[in-house]
Amino acid sequence: MSKQPTFRIVDGERIPGLSRPAFVRNGDHHYLVQLGIYADGLIDCWGLLTLEDFAADLRRGRIVTTFEEGARAAVHETVEWEFSKVNGRLTPESLYAEIRDDIDDLNGRPDSTARAWRALQEFRADPTQERRTVLRAAYEEIPEHERHAALADHSVGDGPLYDLAMGPGGDVTAEEYQESLDYFDEEWGDPLEWLARRDQEPEPGSADGTVLLHEWHAPEDWPEDASPSAALRNEYPAPIRIGGVAYRHVHEAWLAVDPAPEARTAVMAALLRAKYDRHPELADILTATGSARILYRANSFTLSEIAFWGHEGAGRNWMGRLLEATRAELHARRLGLPH
Question: What would the pLDDT profile of 259-292 be if each residue is shown by its tens digit?
């Protein structure tokens, strides 16, 4: 399916996206439109929809993937036609899965195929029934019309992946299962080496990349092996002092201050300055993100605040923006410039 890059502007911020064709039913006509799929999880289909809204429109047939012979279609105010000998590949489930993957890709997150690869290697390294169950679920998350390309090997399609996900028995014979095990041994090598390489890959974040601050832990239970960028989260144990009062971390200070909505961004900016001024080692982690966009999952905020501070769904990502502004101030200070 042909997709083209696109974007929309929200509060002066450029939200990257992809554009792809789809059919929307209105009355007895099916209109060919261009869906806009955006990194913040919204989909433009005659108005902005969340992914959940989009799934509901698929279920009730407003967004269409199959057509009866003779069904009427149109490009608005351009051309009309009737379908004949329709041979569609998409189902509502596969279109939904494809768009969910698009949103993951736009955010630099592993998509369904990447998640299935990891589940496959974890199963090969430890072939328990529990890991097979995870592998099967991951395989079934791949859009059905894209599974044949999941291994990037047209000579076998997705056969070996399917065989290991389903296991011997049913429609997978013991001989087919062993052949698939042999295939991965020959083509993919040692699963432990593959997993080690993946675990050593750098976190998202570069001059032209994105830093995803999704790792969250309860403040009193922060693990020693948390990723470096996790230190940029508000719950990370980095004590600060505000108004003569000591707090264990930014989030505790935020709860104590509880500012009015009109002042919340200014108050949060002040708390971030206090954190990174007091902890230069954390300031180094923040400045090391360069000019990367920072996306913040607002787990620890109240439900009414999540859409304001976080990036997911229709979120405005103000927490990520304030971290970027704090980073710019740190760079300016280190260059001896006013800020």
Answer: 778 889 999 999 999 999 999 999 999 998 888 8
Spans of the chain below 50 pLDDT = 202-208
Kindly state the tokens that stand for 124. Answer: 């090969």
Within a 10 A sphere around the Cβ of 152, how many other Cβ atoms? 6
Taking a C-beta distance cutoff of 8 angstroms, is the pair 331, 325 a contact? Answer: no
Burial label for 64, CB within 10 Å (0-12, 13-18, 19+), is: buried
Contact (CB, 8 A) for 188 and 116? no
Question: Among candidates 33, 37, 13, which has minimal Cα distance to 23?
Answer: 33
Predicted pLDDT at 109: 76
Of 161, 136, 135, whose CA–CA distance to 147 is shortest? 161
Give the residue carrying structure tokens 């508000």: 234
By the 10 Å C-beta count (0-12 exposed, 13-18 middle, 19+ buried), 83 is classed as: middle
Q: Are 229 and 285 in contact (CB under 8 A)?
A: yes
Structure tokens at 154: 């047209």
Residue type at 68? E
Torsion sign, CA atoms 164, 168, 173, 177: positive
The torsion angles phi and psi of 7, rounded to 5 degrees, stand at -165, 165
How many of the other CB atoms lie within 10 Å of CB of 291?
12
The residue type of 242 is: I
Closest CA to 83 of 97, 71, 65: 71
84-120 confidence digits (pLDDT tens) = 877 777 899 999 999 999 988 887 778 899 899 999 9
Measured between its terminal Cα atoms, the distance across the chain in Å is 47
- Encoding tokens for residue 31? 């209109």
Give the residue among 111, 97, 114 at the shortest CA–CA distance from 51: 97
Provide the Cα torsion 47, 48, 50, 52; round to 10°: 10
> In terms of DSSP bridges, do strands 293-296 and 210-213 run parallel, antiparallel, or are they unpaired?
parallel
